[in-house]
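One-letter codes give the sequence; the fold follows as tokens. An example follows:
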Amino acid sequence: MPFPLSLEQKQTAFWIAVWGAFLLLLLALGPVLTPFLAAAILAYALNPGVDRLDHLRFRRFDVPRPLAVVVVVVLFFCAIAALVLIVVPVLQKEIPLLQAQIPAFLAKLNDLLGPRLQELGLKVRLDSAGIKKIVSQQMASSGEAIWSAVLASARVGGTAVLGWIATVVLIPVVLFYLLLDWHPMLARVAAAVPRRYIGRTLAMANEVDTLLAQYLRGQLLVMLVLAVYYSVGLMIAGFDVALPVGIITGLLVFIPYLGFGLGLVLALIAAVLQFADWSGVIAVAAIYGLGQVIEGFFLTPRLVGERIGLNPLAVIFALLAFGQLFGFVGVLLALPASAILMVAFKHLRRHYLSSSFYNA
């Protein structure tokens, strides 16, 4: 015979079901929540700057919070625009030079690989005329399939572009309102926590906040060190575009693969354009290979992992595990999410060690 539930147990079951349904709704609305999640992450990172401006006093003038929010948001997007303005001139300079160098590069490649391909029974010329011939043959043999693929990708790509445009437009708007109401919003969240758990919840939230602040400082140090390393390394190798390419690579390392990949492509293009032999490509391979080793095995585990209390092996495992589970976004959020989980596990372990189940 089942035991009748008390009123408190019924209320607990009801609210657990409500919160479970709410979490399922959030999972179902995942794509819609992307700009809100991105804006919330940016708001968390930028809120300390808004708070400092908000508490400043110029003579008799107190800086109102809306003005502080506008200043911080404008400065943030100006920094992003400055980064874009660093990248675009490099591309504008390198792409026309690359187009002019392509025939000579293909001729060099044909001289190098042509005899070896002929030894394997492949009569292929790797110059402009040979590549045009190969492409035209492939287009003629599979024209309908290519056209169908182009139409399908255009439909999907058009929807994706509209989604990206909506996200880019929404993020600044959502970011402004989140920063404007940051403290009242946190107060409302705290007010929704059951009173019996409020002390423990606030203590865990403060621990997570401290760890994430240390993570952001550590990640900033990694970015600065790598920007200096890549700039100096490319400068020593004799690259004309060492400074902008090094800065791009270093500052974008917080986005896994993108910063490193973009910097590597730009450096390889510069090597092909500037050097007549393979010395530039070899230098790029050495500089960027060593940079990956320094970042993956020394800087990130030491400057980020130690600051959030994670063992270097735990940092590497977190990056791999979150990347496997959630893809690119998982890699991006691996370390801060691990910091939050670490706080939760620490409190869970403390509760376990003090429980009668463990001590009995």
Remarks:
- The chain is about 85% helix and 0% strand.
- The longest strand covers residues 57-58.
